[in-house]
DoxX family protein (Flavobacterium cerinum), 131 residues
Amino acid sequence: MSRKKYAVILRLFQIAPIIALLHILIFKFSISDTVYKEFQYPLYGVYLFFFILSLAIMLFLIRIKETKPEQIGFVFLVLITIKFALSYVFLMPVLEQGTAGAYIEKVNFFVIFIIFLAVEVFLTSRLLNDK
């Protein structure tokens, strides 16, 4: 197992916990506990969901780079589309709620989605530029 080959996975393991910790700390000090108790999913659960999806995407892209490196961009777009569909299914119980806490949870969910999307784009670009 080459360390250089899996450098993007190592970077994901470095970036995701730092972002999660900062987000959780900001969240704990800005949102009341009563609103947080209305949430369908805990914040760490949403981060874990996106981390597992990102890890799977990166591992799949590494495999594609070994076999067909010219297809990484197309595969990335397909995997992001699948991730978006899975995220929608994951968020459906929250979308059906109409409480104030549900609105905050929806916004929070999409912020985490965008953060992980940005990390995946960054890591995929690193994977593409790695010679």
